[in-house]
Structure formats: C-alpha cells, structure tokens
Task: inverse folding
C-alpha cells in the first residue's frame, strides 16, 4: 500500500506531471534572474552575495507548494479512507514527506546550475551551494509538511504557513548561507544535522496534526 | 468474504460536536447480514455517529466494537479531482487489490466516464464512483452516509440492490439517509430518540 501511495503522491506533486507543481522551481530561477537586474552586473558583488540570494529563493520556493500539500487531501477524505484501511497517519505523512522532497529538492538543486550562472557563482562556491541545498532541502520539506498539516484546518492556512516557515527555517538558512561565506564543510554538517532531526520529527508531528484536524 | 464474521456494536455511546451533546445512551448491536437505517434531522448527529463508528472521531463516552474491514462512503469521495475517473479509481482498486474493477465499473455504469476528470462529474456520478471504490474494497461492514443524495431513481434502486446483496453475503450495513431504502429486514434507528432531554442540558 505504501508503494502505491508514494507513486500517487509523486504523480500529484512532481513538476510537470502534477497540478502546477513546476511553479516553485520556476519561481526559484526567476528570483535568481531578477537579482542581477536589481544590483547591476558587477561580477564581484554578484559572486559575493549571490549564494545568499539562492538560499533565500530556495526558502521562499519551499513555501509555494504548502497550500496543496495536506489540506486538499483532508478535504477529499483521502486520509480518512487510508485510515480505514489500517494505515497510520505517521506512515501517510512519511510517504508525503518523501514525495514532497523529491518533487522540490532535487529539481531545485538542478535549477541551481542556471541560477549560479546568472549570479556568477563558480567553482568551489557552487559546489558548497549545491551540496548545502541538497542536505538543506529535506529540512525545509519537513518544516513545510509540519506547517501544512498544522494549518490544514484553518481557512487562512496558506498565508499563515509562509509566516510560520520563515522563523523555523532560520537555522538552516544561517548555516547553509554561512558555509558559503566561510567556504567550510563544517557548517554543511550542521545543516545536515538539522535536516535529519526535522525529517525524523516531521511524520509524527504532521501525523498528530491531521489526527487532531479530523476530530472537528 | 471468508474472514471471521463481522460485527458492529456500540454500548452507551455519546457524541459531541463542539460543545453540543448530540446523542447519548445509544446502544445497538448488528449481526452479520443486518442492515440498519439511521434517520434524523439535519444536524442530529448521523454523520458524527458514522465517523465515531469508523474510528475517525473519538466518542465523548461509551464504546464501539467492530469486527471486519470497514468501508466508508460519505460526501467526500477520496478521488483525486484532477485525474480521469478511471485512474482515480485505479489507485483505490490497486490499494485494495480489488476484485474485477471492470465488472464494478460496468455495474455502476461508469465505463463511459473513465476518461472524464473527476471534477467534471455531476454529484450523482461522483456518488456512483464512490460506490465503485466501496465495492472494490470488499469490506464487510459498510457505513453509508447519505448514499442516495444526488442519485437518480434508477441509481437509487441500484443502491438498494447493492445493500441487499451485501447483506446476503453476511455483510453489515449501517445507512444514514433521509430517503427510504428497499432492503427487507432492515432495522430502523431514529437518532432523535437519543437526543439529550432539555432539562439534562440545562
């Protein structure tokens, strides 16, 4: 049943197959494209600040898919039907987390290449940026899932989730962008550790949230 | 359906919605092959009862005992609105390892709609699609919340027929509906009989 569910969730969320799911990646590249227009074509300045812009773009792109991530399937009665078939909410949310990350993490890392070209980020900096996003996006996905599940039963949930994600994502942003400034690997280790902890917590937190949402 | 015989019983059940007590001291037991028609005005607690029976809502007091796989049909079909009906149903048939999806589709006259996205279906068509999902599940205990709403006369007859067949195969059906169903031997439960009396509420 889990394999069936993962296939269904991926079809829902994956760019170009699901409903408007390519949007976060397009948004991400668009921000990277706008930045040189705003600060001018100074290659040095771009290279110094570009990494931080990419991180902020990634963080904002992570907010976009949240609206449909959980609330839609609650309204559909989809989780109710899975529950009747004996599946735990935690398992549903673990599958959802994998599908959500796969549909936005790796595409974002790939989109970093054109974004980096626009921002004159090269060599080792690009490498640290790409690795940082690869280990940081699971954490962003986990925060996003928790927030989407918590706000699913609220009418203004979509607007609220953006506000909630930003402070929670700060540690990932600080260490991820910090790794670029200092060109070190240790900060990346911190990003990976934060991500791991969030990924471990997310299915339980989100599972409890949709269980609570069902009661009213 | 060779599994152990299904059962559905509640003892001294009370449910709340928000702060309001909907019903209390509700007890019944359904044997294999039994059908029960639950009636009550809007807001009397039919849907709440069904969700409590399904284990989707914690009752305020009392206990629910159920044996056998549960099938729930309510106003939410669980079908992806963006997918063509055939693919949306195929997901549930695959999850349930459903028997003979083609036969089920034909039975509910859904074959011609297989390519139509679920969101374009009419209320009645969606209801029939939800029945297809329910049949594919081959659950022993059916909980049906307003299964007849939105259906035309022919489809309403079909629903009665499906419930009769289900009960003939020792299945249990509990149906909350405003419309009458043609199922012989069906018991009747008026949920208003269990509404809290005014003086108790004060």
Result:
């Amino acid at each position: 049943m889990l394999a069936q569910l993962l296939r269904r969730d991926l079809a829902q969320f994956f760019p170009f197959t699901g409903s408007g799911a390519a949007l976060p990646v397009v948004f991400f590249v668009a921000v990277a494209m706008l930045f040189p227009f705003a600060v001018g074509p100074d290659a040095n300045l771009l290279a110094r600040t570009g990494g931080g812009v990419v991180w902020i773009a990634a963080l904002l792109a992570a907010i976009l898919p949240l609206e449909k991530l959980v609330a839609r399937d609650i309204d559909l009665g989809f989780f109710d039907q899975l529950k009747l078939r004996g599946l735990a909410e935690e398992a549903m949310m673990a599958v959802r987390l994998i599908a959500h990350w796969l549909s936005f993490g790796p595409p974002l890392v790939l989109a970093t290449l054109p974004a980096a070209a626009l921002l004159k980020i090269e060599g080792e900096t690009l490498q640290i940026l790409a690795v940082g996003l690869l280990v940081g996006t699971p954490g962003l996905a986990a925060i996003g899932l928790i927030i989407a599940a918590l706000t699913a039963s609220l009418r203004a949930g979509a607007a609220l989730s953006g506000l909630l994600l930003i402070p929670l994502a700060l540690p990932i942003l600080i260490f991820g962008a910090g790794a670029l400034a200092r060109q070190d690997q240790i900060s990346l280790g911190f990003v990976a550790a934060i991500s791991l902890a969030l990924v471990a917590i997310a299915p339980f937190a989100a599972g409890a949230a949709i269980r609570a949402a069902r009661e009213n | 359906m060779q599994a152990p015989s299904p059962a559905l019983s509640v003892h001294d059940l009370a449910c709340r919605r928000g702060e309001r007590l909907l019903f209390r001291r509700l007890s019944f037991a359904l044997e294999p092959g039994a059908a029960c028609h639950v009636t009550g005005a809007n807001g009397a607690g039919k849907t709440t009862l069904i969700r409590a029976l399904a284990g989707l809502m914690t009752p305020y007091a009392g206990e629910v005992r159920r044996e056998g796989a549960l099938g729930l049909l309510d106003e939410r079909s669980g079908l992806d609105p963006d997918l063509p009906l055939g693919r949306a149903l195929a997901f549930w048939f695959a999850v349930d390892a459903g028997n003979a999806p083609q036969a089920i589709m034909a039975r509910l006259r859904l074959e011609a709609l297989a390519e139509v996205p679920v969101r374009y279906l009419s209320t009645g068509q969606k209801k029939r699609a939800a029945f297809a999902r329910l049949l594919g599940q081959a659950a022993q205990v059916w909980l049906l919340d307003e299964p007849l709403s939105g259906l035309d006369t022919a489809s309403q007859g079909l629903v009665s027929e499906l419930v009769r067949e289900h009960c003939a195969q020792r299945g249990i059906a509990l149906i909350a509906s405003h419309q009458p169903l043609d199922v012989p031997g069906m018991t009747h439960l008026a949920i208003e009989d269990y509404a809290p009396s005014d003086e108790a509420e004060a």
Observations:
- Chain A has one domain: 2-214.
